[in-house]
Amino acid sequence: MSHESCPGYAVAPFAGLVAAYPGEDVYPAGDFRVEWGPIFHRGRLDGSARVLVLGQDPATHESIARRILVGEAGQRVQGLLAKVGIGRSYVLVNTFLYSVFGQGGGQRHAKDPAIAAYRNAWLDALLVGSQVSAVVTLGQLAHTAYDMWAATQPGAAAGLHLAAIRHPTYPESSARASGKKLSETTAILLEDWNRALPALAAHVTPEGPVDTTPYAVQSGWRAGDLAPIPEVDLPAGSPPWWLDLRSWATRTGEDAQAKRATIQVTVPRAYRAWPPLG
Ligand code: URA
Questions:
Q1: Which of 41, 62, 165 to mutate to test ligand 1, by most ligand atoms within 8 A of the CB atom?
Q2: pLDDT digits (tens, 9 = 90+) for 41-67
């Protein structure tokens, strides 16, 4: 059986970009989990991307897989891209290279010039003179980041469709913060994604079947709304369960210190193909 994998960052300008990533002097350790390292992207860096997704910051699964938006949030986005006929011709980058730690860290650094300068270098590489025709921003911080880039590249930005949508984990974070039911906040997100879907489809050249049937706002997520991450997006040798829709990584620990230092990785039951243990 032959496997596909992400070739990484061997060629310019990405080789230079990953060599020059900003560290703790730019991303303070009080607000970012710098100890888990920067996580740069997911998807095509070879010029074949037709859509760019700008996310927020990496979470637990991303810290292990070393590619962004591979957990639940990423699978929701993968499902959205599938609706507009995009199965692999995309590229995803985040607003922040490191996972945000604590309340308000993202807002506090939304306009930091050094963070923006490095992010803009990636966006220049991916959007200027490329065949990307649409940008999807996930949440307010990503929208702000996109606007900051667009102000530096008005010519390139003028040729792009912007779909500024709610972040895929809005339902969970909003329910936690407001006390609203998860079903209610999920409906708000799905309504928002439904609103953006027709124009996004109109501005993307599909590579596969398009199905812009709206999300069923009152039913919540249905089978098929989430899509698994393709093998070609992950580093060579990644185990297949890293692509699965089931969660396999979680932060654990008795206190905040231990929790920040620990990610528990568990092979899902369906992948425990070893012989019975004696
Ligand atoms: N994981 C990411 O990499 N980015 C997000 O915005 C959310 C989860």
A1: 62
A2: 999 999 999 999 999 999 999 999 999
